[in-house]
Write a structure and sequence with these properties.
The protein is globular. It has a 3-stranded antiparallel beta sheet. It has one domain. A hairpin with a 2-residue loop joins strand 1 and strand 2. It has about 375 residues and is mainly alpha-helical. Its main location: membrane. Keywords: Cell cycle, Cell division, Cell membrane, Cell shape, Cell wall biogenesis/degradation, Glycosyltransferase, Membrane, Peptidoglycan synthesis, Transferase, Transmembrane, Transmembrane helix. It is found in: Cell membrane. Belongs to the SEDS family. FtsW subfamily.
Amino acid sequence: MNETTQKFLAKPSSSYKMLMWSTLALSILGAVMVFSASSIYSLENRGNSFSIIGRQLFFLVIAIPIGFLASRQKLDRWKKLARFGFLFSGIVLVIVAIPGVGKEVNGNRNWISLGFIDIQPSEIVKMLMILWAAHMLASREHAGLHRTNVLALITPGFILVMGLIMLGRDLGTAAVFAAILAGLLWVSGVSGRIFGAVTAAGFSLIALAIVMAPYRAQRLLVVFNPFAPEDYKNAGWQPAHSLLGLASGGFFGVGLGASRQKWGNLAEAHTDFIFSVIGEELGLFGTFVILLLFSALIFSIFRIALRASDPMSKYACAGIGTWITFQTIMNIGSATSLIPVVGVTLPLISYGGSSLVATYLALGFVLGAARRDPAAMADLEKNR
């Protein structure tokens, strides 16, 4: 690490700036890559190459003001919302589970159709549950009840939410909630023995969900060799063509818009497998830039969590950091065939209005936590 970098990181406002610039850069790259990855699919299915990118830009225009307003909210307002976070989460997920109300997409019933758009309530529920859990943990800390059983405090609520999500057969989203729970338990200071037991139980439940669904078990098996003749045209098709796209990109890629895999070979190229399109069109250099930007984003979130003086801000930022970290790993892991295809978006990059709005709402909260840091704001004013 050179001297300039050390000086930058030593400044209290560095995390604030990193969060702002990495979010902006990822959003711009995401819009460009969604247009590139979706243009062929959009033309074939909707008769217009700009249909999907138009929707993404529409949601981006909505998401940015939401993030800005979220960053300006006082902590007391977040606390009021947090008290009802679990209740609101349960209500919206029960609504999704009602036959005829919830909409099924690719085998998962986790959507609600509003006619002109479809929304995925579980994306907003991530933020609501993080706020609720952070409020519960902060209330325990404020009351001095450090001996309170943290596991019993927030785990039942997360288990119920994950159960409702699994009713819609969305294992990927349920796994993200499990990771958020694990992250919150870790930062709350549970013992290593309890954390290990909870983690083992979580992996056991995920394994059980995979074994009980033959298509999930098949997805797991093809990870080892998606090009196997017996699997290639079935469960191995997506991971195989994702790897082909990444392998053909070389160092600088085949050129923006020149992907061959998006011409029907790689399903969900603009959502679940957009990282593969980035690797094919922008090469290893492009994927490295994406990883670098996500590293900066995640580093800044956890650094803001560490600097937060209020317990609720600390826990909520840690939960948001865990959410974005784990979801990023899951998406890129699926694209590189390191883990089975799980069907989660790459935050700020993949097409998806609900995901984009929820992510900006969460990052707005983190930005607000940074703004409540007197030293960071004083440093910003000094530089200004």
